[in-house]
Every structure is written in C-alpha cells, then in structure tokens.
Design a protein that fits this description.
With 311 residues, the chain is mainly α. It has a two-stranded antiparallel ribbon. Helix 2 packs across helix 8, helix 10 crosses helix 13 and helix 12 crosses helix 13. The longest helix is centred in the N-terminal third of the chain and has 19 residues. The protein is globular, with a radius of gyration of 22 Å.
C-alpha cells in the first residue's frame, strides 16, 4: 500500500512538472515575463506594467517602477506585435528582441543591468535547465530576449465583432459601429490615414499636437533621431482592444475613449499652440455628438471577445 501511495505521489509530481515547466520558447518567455527576477529588487515583472487582463496594458497614466519611481510614458498594450517594427513610443528599438533589455535596464522601471539579469537566470537551476533543453545552451543575452519576444509574438488577436463582420460570418456590428467605421475611413475624418492595416497602425510616427514645449515637453521621436522634423512625434498605436487599454496617449493624459475623440475633433481646445502638428490635424473636424458616439461604437467593436465580460 505504501509503495502504491509513493508511486502515485511521484506520478503526481511528474504530472505537475509537465504542466508547469516550459517546453517551448513561448512558454519559457511567458514564465520570464511574469517573473520579478528581472527587476533590481525583485518586486516587478514585465506583467506588473503590462497586465494580461487589460490586453497587456495598464490602467494608470504612468506605471510606477521599482521603489515607486515615476517615468514619463504610459505602458502601451504589447498585443499584436508579431508583424510590427519600431518599438516604444519613440521607436528606439527596431525589433521585439531589441526592445527586451530597455525596460529591464531603465532606472525608472526595473533598474537592473542586463548582464546581472543574465547572471541571475544562469544561477537559477530551473531557468538554466529550461534554456539548455529548449535552446541547447545556457541563458545569454540573445536567447533570453528571444524567449520573451517569442511570447510577445504569440499575443495576436482577431476574434472581434469587426473581424466577424469583415469575414461576413454574421452581422455582429451595431448600426452605430458601422456608421463609425464609415466615419473612420472617410476623407473628412482621415483616421485611416494613420491607423490602417490589420492592426490599425502603419508603425509610423506622427505629431498629433501634444507637444508645445511648455505643458507638453516630451519631444518623442526627436530624442532618438535628433531631427527637428521629428519634434513631438510618437509612434501611432494599434487600435485593437483599445477600449480596454485606457488611459490614452503617450503620457496617459486622456482617461476615456471619448476624451480622445473630443481631442481629435478639435485639438486646439486642448493645446493652444502645438508645435509641428501633423497637417492632417491642421483643421478641426468639429464632429457632431452623434458622430462621436458612432466612432466610439466602432472602436468598441475592435475588442477581442476574450476581454469582454460574460453577462
């Protein structure tokens, strides 16, 4: 009887290990993404700022780093990044793998030298064995970045009312959302000029007027290129799941989608003298109340169904 119990206990341990131990790059990357081992004081993980339940974004304007340090920029969603380029609002990382080390080393975020992060992971028996099994080598700068980026690349979504409507599976979009879609792609609103493609972004950099050198001092892309033409430009974000990734803009200054729509209707009501504003926004749209509601309905239709609460 004791032998049988011991056998069952050992079998259970093996089963649990098989379920929890990573067997692919994606699973290994997911485990690292949620592990605070990558922050200097082991209090923050990547998931601390990029919360899965909010499409891997956050719900505060600026997420505090270690010791409560406050940076300048909002934590954007990292979903639907597999086929994208130029990461962070200023585009300082060309690829997903390039971007991995930035938040780890940033003193306002995780504040850990990447070399020390590599050392920690090598000294961790669980991770060292996992990397040897999956990559055939010990953890290093390249395969750690590859594992985390592989997980990020797996976060693709397409199960939305809009996608179903486009595929003609069934007319799941509301009449308001369809009207909003028509406004979105119209020559008048020109939303689609910046937010186009499968993820509603061309990965371009635009200045939408949130830079005046006074109240709005973040120069964005200019800080990377030093090109005066890039003053106040930020990467155009994708719009999938945008309804659950508030607050908005690079600094999280707008709390709701309606705030964003009001801004685009007339940026000059928010920033009196924007510097280098995109010519697409030079003339206010002056949207009607109905048009604003319809646009918001369309943006809501871009939410993946896994994030919609069950009624």
């Amino acid at each position: 009887m004791q032998i049988r119990i011991a056998f069952l206990f050992i079998s259970l341990i093996i089963l649990v290990a098989a379920i929890t131990e990573p067997v692919t790059k994606v699973q290994l990357g997911e485990k690292l993404f949620h592990d605070p081992i990558l922050s200097r004081d082991s209090t923050l993980s990547c998931a601390s700022c990029h919360k899965p339940q909010f499409a891997f974004a956050d719900t505060v304007a600026i997420t505090p780093g270690i010791e409560g340090r406050i940076g300048r920029r909002n934590a954007p969603s990292i979903m639907n990044m597999a086929f994208r380029s130029n990461f962070f609002f200023d585009g300082r990382a060309a690829t997903l793998r390039d971007q991995v080390h930035f938040p780890i080393e940033d003193p306002m975020e995780m504040d850990l030298e990447y070399s020390i992060a590599i050392e920690r992971i090598n000294n961790h028996p669980y991770y060292k064995d996992a990397f040897l099994k999956i990559y055939g080598e010990a953890p290093n700068a390249d395969n750690i970045a590859d594992a985390i980026a592989s997980f990020e690349e797996s976060l693709e979504t397409s199960d939305t009312e809009f996608d179903a409507w486009m595929a003609d599976k069934e007319n799941t979009m509301t009449e308001a959302a369809i009207r909003g879609k028509d406004i979105f792609i119209s020559d008048r609103a020109k939303c689609f000029d910046c937010h186009f493609g499968p993820d509603f972004t061309a990965d371009e950099f635009r200045n939408i007027g949130l830079y005046d050198g006074i109240s709005y001092k973040d120069a964005g892309r200019y800080e990377v290129t030093k090109n005066p033409a890039d003053l106040g430009k930020f990467k155009v974000p994708g719009l999938r799941n945008v309804a659950i990734t508030a607050p908005y803009m690079h600094d999280g200054s707008f709390k709701t989608l309606r705030d964003v729509i009001d801004y685009y209707s007339n940026p000059y009501e928010f920033v009196a003298n924007p510097i280098n504003i995109d010519t697409l926004l030079a003339r206010p749209l002056n949207l009607s109340e109905q048009e604003k509601q319809d646009l918001e309905a369309f943006l809501l239709s871009l939410t993946d169904k896994r994030f919609i609460p069950k009624s």
